[in-house]
Design goal:
The structure is a single chain. By secondary structure, the chain is an alpha/beta fold. The protein has a domain at about 1-50. It has 5 helices and 3 strands, in the order H-E-E-H-E-H-H-H. A 3-stranded parallel β-sheet has the order 2-1-3. It is globular.
Length: about 130
């Protein structure tokens, strides 16, 4: 649903966007296909990857990073309901502090729970910024 909402918001801003899913959702969005995604990107369209990888053990965060690696993206963005990365969940912990600068190493050392371990190690190991 988030992917569809993002696509609709982009369309309202006159940005051509397409949603692709690893899980077949006929009539809702297109099936994920690497070649189709690359073609869409080369034509200047935004591609939104939705519904994870279709495999167990992968969160949607690690799936986003995997797709980013597959299409050779420079960056993967994560949007949430808080204003950034905190030392703890700011909704549950009023003492949580907003982190002003992070690296893959600092996130792993501090064990920040913003994304799962694979979601940080995949892009780190593939030199994604």
């Amino acid at each position: 649903m988030n992917g569809l909402a993002m696509r609709d918001a982009l369309h309202r801003a006159y940005v051509n966007a397409r949603v692709m899913s690893a899980i077949p959702l006929k009539g809702v969005c297109d099936d994920y296909n690497w070649a189709d995604a690359i073609r869409e990107l080369r034509q200047g369209r935004v591609v939104i990857f939705s519904a994870g990888t279709g495999n167990p053990f992968f969160t949607t965060d690690s799936a986003a990073c995997l797709r980013g690696i597959e299409i050779e993206a420079d960056v993967v963005l994560k949007a949430t309901k808080v204003d950034g990365v905190f030392t703890a969940n700011p909704v549950a912990n009023p003492d949580a502090v907003l982190c002003d600068k992070l690296s893959y190493i600092s996130v792993l050392e501090k064990e920040l729970k913003v994304m799962d371990l694979a979601a940080f190690t995949l892009p780190r190991d593939h030199k994604m910024h």
